[in-house]
């Protein structure tokens, strides 16, 4: 913690209030643009400004968690961080965000994992200290000032393709996030659609009345 506080300067203190977002009047959902964001983050153990512009032309998995130094949150963040390589191999970056300060994020990374800390992170931890980002994404619980567990997958054009929002007590699945990413990338590349519980190398469906019969005939034998 003292190492974290030693890094405070007047410019980084001002950063507590400088997260910015675009004014969004549309409901957030598939085929809508990912809201613009720009704020301080912990990246590789230091402070850095992170924004949408850093991910232009890439898939982006952007997820919110409620609060630093809690219980379910470290299990999710560590799980996504430890598998960041798998996402990057698919051309997808991962960013985690909460309404804590970047100083709190840094202090949490300096706490051992066996004590509920995060340890070394392979993904940015974005600060939404003024709650404007969570509000623009529609995941802020105004009563508590915390964000719900929202997860947003956007494509290289910056359009949202997938959204999930969990209430606070239940964490998310990295396997499912990877499955959905691979499914959307398959659709983009091949033009066929993915049925329920589709997994990589699984059967897909030609999106036409005639073409779909091939899948249905095999699936319903």
From TrEMBL:
EC number(s)?
1.11.1.24
Q: Which domain of life is it from?
A: Eukaryota
Write out the GO biological process terms: cell redox homeostasis; hydrogen peroxide catabolic process; response to oxidative stress
Supply the InterPro entries for this chain: AhpC/TSA, Peroxiredoxin, Peroxiredoxin_AhpC-typ, Peroxiredoxin_C, Thioredoxin-like_sf, Thioredoxin_domain
Alphabetized, the UniProt keywords read: Antioxidant, Disulfide bond, Oxidoreductase, Peroxidase, Redox-active center
Q: Write out the transmembrane intervals.
A: none
Q: Name one GO molecular function term.
A: thioredoxin peroxidase activity
Catalysed reaction(s) here are: a hydroperoxide + [thioredoxin]-dithiol = an alcohol + [thioredoxin]-disulfide + H2O
Protein family: Belongs to the peroxiredoxin family. AhpC/Prx1 subfamily.
- This protein is called thioredoxin-dependent peroxiredoxin
| Recorded name of the encoding gene | WBGene00100880
């Amino acid at each position: 913690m003292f190492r974290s506080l030693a890094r405070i300067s007047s410019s980084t203190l001002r950063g507590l209030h400088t997260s910015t977002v675009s004014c969004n009047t549309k409901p957030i959902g598939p085929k809508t643009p990912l809201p613009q964001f720009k704020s301080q983050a912990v990246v590789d153990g230091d402070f850095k400004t992170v924004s949408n512009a850093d991910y232009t032309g890439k898939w982006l998995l952007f997820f919110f968690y409620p609060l630093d130094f809690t219980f379910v949150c470290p299990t999710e963040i560590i799980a996504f961080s430890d598998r960041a390589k798998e996402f990057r191999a698919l051309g997808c970056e991962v960013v985690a965000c909460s309404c804590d300060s970047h100083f709190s994020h840094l202090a949490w990374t300096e706490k051992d994992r066996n004590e509920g800390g995060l340890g070394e992170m392979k993904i940015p931890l974005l600060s939404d200290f003024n709650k404007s980002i969570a509000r623009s994404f529609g995941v802020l619980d105004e009563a508590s000032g915390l964000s719900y567990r929202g997860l947003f997958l956007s494509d290289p054009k910056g359009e949202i393709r997938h959204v999930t929002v969990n209430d606070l007590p239940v964490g998310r699945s990295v396997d499912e996030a990877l499955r959905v990413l691979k499914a959307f990338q398959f659709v983009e590349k091949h033009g066929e659609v993915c049925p329920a519980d589709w997994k990589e190398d699984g059967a897909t469906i030609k999106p036409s009345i005639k073409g779909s019969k091939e899948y249905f005939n095999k699936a319903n034998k």
